[in-house]
Recover the amino acids of this structure.
C-alpha cells in the first residue's frame, strides 16, 4: 500500500519588477530559495534530510555547478544551512504544485451590468472619502444641523480640520481662513473653538510662520483701485535653493482683488527679462495696467524699464528706500508664499518648484479679510 502525500501548507509570492527580469532558471531557483525561507523554522537543523521536487531539470545540478553568477553564489551559501536533495519531477506528474497557477474554467458566465456601488453613494465623478466617513458616522450620532450644511460627528472632526488645514490646496492658512474653508459646507457646535485649538497647536505653522506685530505709527495706504488688474505690485522672492533650475520667484499682486501670479525664474532677471515676463504671463491675460508699484531694485530703476512702461502708458511708482511697508501687499504675499513652501518642503528644500502652482492656487482660493471674497471670486 503506497502512502498518499497530503499538503500541510501553501505559499505564493508575487515577483518584484527586478525578479520578473530573471531567466526561467533563476526564477525556478528563486522559488526554492523563497520556500526555504518561509519554512526555515521547520527545515533548518532538521534531523532527517528532506526532498525538494522541481519540474526544472537543470536545478538538479545547481549544487555541483563550477561557475555561478553572484546571485546564485549567495543562494548557494544559503543552501548550506539545509540538508536536502533536489529531484526532478516532470510537470505532468507535478500537478499539485502547478494546479493553482494553471486553473482553467470553461464555464461561460453572464456579466451582470449592475454597478457595484448603489446609486445613493454616487454623488459626482469623484466621491470624497471624508464625506463618506461623515455620512456613516452620522447614522450613529444624529443631530440637528442648519440647512445647506453637513453635520460632522465628533469622530471625524479632527480629520476634517487636518484635511482643510494641511492639504496642498490650502497651505496651512490661519485660524480665520481655515474656519471659512469649513463653515461653508460643514457644521458642528464647537467648529470655531476646535479650529482655533488645532491651528494654534500645529507644529508646522509654529516652525514656518513669520512673527506678527502691530505696525508702528499710522499707515497711509495706497488708493484703492476701481477694477481688477489695473494697479499691480511686483517684487522678487530671492535666495531660494536651486530647484529644477529655478532660484527666484517673481511675485505679481493685483491690488484690487489681492490675486497673485508666481513666476519661477532661473535667477534674478534683468529689466528687459522682467518686462518680458510680465507681458507674457500677466499683460496678455488681463490687459495693460495703469500703475505698477515696486521697490528700487536695479530692474525697476533702469532706463529700459522706464522706456518700456512709458511706451505702454504705464506709470511707475517706486517705494521709499529701505521702507518695504510702502509695497505691503506684495511683501505680505511673499511671506505667505515663503511659509507655504517651508510647510511643504522643509525636509526637501530642493523640490519647492513643483509646489509653486499649488502655492498660487492656495493664495488665490482663500478668502481675503479686506474683500470677504477669494481672489478667484473677485476677479
Amino acid at each position: 500500500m503506497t502512502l498518499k502525500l497530503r499538503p500541510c501548507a501553501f505559499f505564493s509570492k508575487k515577483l518584484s519588477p527586478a525578479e520578473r527580469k530573471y531567466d526561467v532558471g533563476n526564477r525556478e531557483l528563486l522559488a526554492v530559495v523563497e520556500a526555504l525561507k518561509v519554512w526555515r523554522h521547520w527545515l533548518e537543523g532538521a534531523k532527517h534530510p528532506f526532498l525538494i521536487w522541481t519540474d526544472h531539470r537543470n536545478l538538479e545540478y545547481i549544487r555541483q555547478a563550477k561557475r555561478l553568477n553572484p546571485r546564485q553564489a549567495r543562494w548557494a551559501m544559503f543552501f548550506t544551512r539545509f540538508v536536502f536533495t533536489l529531484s526532478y519531477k516532470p510537470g505532468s506528474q507535478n500537478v499539485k504544485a502547478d494546479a493553482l497557477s494553471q486553473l482553467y474554467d470553461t464555464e461561460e458566465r453572464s456579466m451582470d451590468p449592475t454597478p457595484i456601488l448603489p446609486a445613493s453613494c454616487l454623488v459626482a465623478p469623484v466621491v470624497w472619502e471624508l464625506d463618506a466617513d461623515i455620512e456613516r458616522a452620522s447614522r450613529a450620532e444624529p443631530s440637528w444641523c442648519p440647512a445647506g450644511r453637513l453635520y460632522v460627528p465628533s469622530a471625524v472632526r479632527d480629520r476634517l480640520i487636518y484635511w482643510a488645514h494641511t492639504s496642498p490646496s490650502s497651505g496651512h492658512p490661519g485660524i480665520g481662513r481655515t474656519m471659512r474653508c469649513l463653515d461653508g459646507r460643514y457644521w458642528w457646535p464647537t467648529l470655531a473653538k476646535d479650529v482655533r485649538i488645532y491651528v494654534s497647536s500645529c507644529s508646522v505653522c509654529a516652525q514656518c510662520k513669520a512673527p506678527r506685530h502691530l505696525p508702528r505709527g499710522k499707515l497711509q495706504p495706497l488708493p484703492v483701485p476701481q477694477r481688477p488688474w489695473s494697479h499691480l505690485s511686483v517684487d522678487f522672492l530671492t535666495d531660494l535653493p536651486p530647484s529644477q533650475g529655478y532660484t527666484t520667484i517673481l511675485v505679481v499682486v493685483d491690488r484690487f482683488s489681492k490675486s497673485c501670479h508666481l513666476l519661477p525664474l532661473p535667477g534674478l532677471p534683468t529689466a528687459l527679462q522682467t518686462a518680458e515676463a510680465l507681458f507674457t504671463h500677466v499683460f496678455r491675460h488681463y490687459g495693460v495696467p495703469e500703475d505698477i508699484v515696486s521697490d528700487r531694485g536695479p530692474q525697476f530703476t533702469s532706463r529700459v524699464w522706464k522706456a518700456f512702461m512709458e511706451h505702454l502708458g504705464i506709470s511707475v511708482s517706486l517705494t521709499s528706500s529701505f521702507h518695504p511697508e510702502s509695497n505691503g501687499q506684495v511683501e505680505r504675499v511673499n511671506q505667505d508664499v515663503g511659509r507655504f513652501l517651508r510647510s511643504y518642503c522643509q525636509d526637501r528644500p530642493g523640490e519647492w518648484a513643483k509646489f509653486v502652482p499649488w502655492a498660487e492656487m492656495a493664495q488665490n482660493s482663500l478668502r481675503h479679510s479686506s474683500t470677504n471674497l477669494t481672489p478667484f471670486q473677485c476677479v
Notes: The chain has a mean pLDDT of 83. The CA atoms of residues 40 and 358 lie 51 Å apart. The longest helix spans residues 328-345. The two ends are 90 Å apart (CA to CA).
